[in-house]
Each structure stands twice: as structure tokens, then as C-alpha cells.
Amino acid sequence: MSRNQATILLTLLTVIIAAWLYLYYQHWLMTSLPMSEMWMPSADIYNWQWTDFWLVYTMWAVMMIAMMLPTAIPMVAVYTKICEQRYQTAYTHTLLFVFAYLVVWLVFSIALSALQWQMHGLNFLTPMMDMQHDQLAAILFLLAGAYQFTPQKNKFLQSCRTPMGFVLTEWREGTMGAFQMGIKHGSACLGCCWAQMLIMFAVGVMSLLGMVFITLLVFAEKIVPPRYRFFSKAVGILFIVWSFRLFIS
After folding, report:
1. pLDDT tens for residues 181-236?
2. SS (H, E, C) the chain
3. Which residues pair with 131 in a beta bridge?
4. Where are the domains of the chain?
5. Residue 32 to residues 19, 216, 217, 220: CA-CA distances in angstroms?
6. For residues 172 and 181, what is the distance between their CA atoms, to the nearest angstrom?
7. Sign of torsion over alpha carbons 172, 178, 183, 188
8. Which of 7, 173, 186, 241 could be disulfide-bonded to 104 (CB atoms 3.0-4.6 Å)?
9. Contact by Cβ (8 Å): 204, 131
10. Are 178 and 100 in contact (CB under 8 A)?
11. What dihedral angle (degrees, nearest 10) is formed by the CA atoms of 92, 96, 102, 107?
């Protein structure tokens, strides 16, 4: 591993660890503080202030960084190696690539925050951000499971599973090119994983176990060789079975 690669990996690991520590701290606050001292989003959507929306958005944004940045490390490693060969240095280009990748997920976090806002208004979520509507939880699992079998899922997943192929086919020169490639990869990753992220609503928005489970699942999908397509189908079956269990419970 070159000095550039080691520095970039250390930077990514620092960001990832910081994000997980923040999530753990928030989880600790929710499980340790008395209800009277705890911030909770209002069930009445008309009572939400900008502060409420910002706190919910920050939670989702950090969650996306913590969950999705580890899964991007194989792609970042390949991109860094190519940048070293072309530019002799890779730090600036790789950081722009990673930043652009995260921009996609940070924008998606706005949609997740707005969806949570509506779910509170419909009383689907408790003030502790846990799902209290089994049928909706089942629908979310069913949606995530069904998406695993679609051509769109397979198309986006293939892009994430073959870092070298993505870099060679989508290569753009310069710093602007690095940003464009990061957006392209982030968009493909979002297209692959958006339905799985909705499962966080079903298992509890601040469920650390749910976060770890989905992170490991996404990471496994990305590193499994492309010829093992049955893995994604198996995940889809798992989600669908989980959905049926919720429907009949």
C-alpha cells in the first residue's frame, strides 16, 4: 500500500468511526435520558420547527455516511490506484470523488427526513422513532425484497461490484472529472440500495442493530463476485419472508 493509499484509507476510517460514534451517542441518549430531558420529534407535523427538521436530517446524513462509506472503500481503493498512475498523487482527486459520492447520499437524506416527518404526522412512528404500524413495516420489507429481483437493481449492483470496470468506462480527467465520477458512482449506489435504506423505518430509525445489519448486507452484496447473482435473490427472499411474518403477526 502506497503512502497516498494509506493516508486516504486512514482518513476514510476516521470519518467512518466518527459517524458511528455519533450514532452510538444518539442511541445512548435516547435509551438513557429521562423522557422529560430528551428531544423527540413532534407527532404533529405542523409543530415541527426548522430545528426539528435539521436534527432529523443530521441524524440521517450521519447514518448514510456511517453505513455507505465503508461499502465504497473497494471502489475508492481502485480509483486511488489509477489516480496515482496518472497524476503521481491521488489525495485531492480521491477526496473529491468521495465527497461527490457522499453528496448523493446527503441529498437522499433530505428525502428520508421529509418521509419521517410525514410518518410522524400519520402516527406510523413513535416519538422514539420506532415503527408502530406492522402493516407498513411489512410493506417496506416487501418493497425491498421485490426490488432485489428487478433488472434495475441488478444493473446498479453490477456497477458497484466491478470497481475497475466502472473506473475504466466512466473515467473523467481532472478534479471536475473526479467530482463527476463520484456523483455517477453515488447515483449507481443509491439506485442499488435505496429500498434497503427504507428498512430502517421498519426496524426503528435509531436501531443500531438495524444499521449494522444493512451495512454488512450492502457490503456483502458489493464484494460478492458478479457471477453469484443468487446472493441478491436470497436477500430478496429473506425480506419477503420477513414481510409475510409481519403481515400475519
Report:
1. 999 999 999 999 999 999 999 999 999 999 999 999 999 999 887 667 788 899 99
2. CCHHHHHHHHHHHHHHHHHHHHHHHHHHHHHHCCHHHCCCCCCCHHHCCHHHHHHHHHHHHHHHHHHHCHHHHHHHHHHHHHHHHHHCCCHHHHHHHHHHHHHHHHHHHHHHHHHHHHHHHCCCECCCCCECCHHHHHHHHHHHHHHCCCHHHHHHHHHHHCHHHHHHHHCCCHHHHHHHHHHHHHHHHHHHHHHHHHHHHHHCCCCHHHHHHHHHHHHHHHHCCCCCCHHHHHHHHHHHHHHHHHHHC
3. 125
4. 3-248
5. 20, 27, 29, 33
6. 7
7. positive
8. 186
9. yes
10. yes
11. 150
Quickly tell me which residue has 496515482 as its cell. Answer: 84
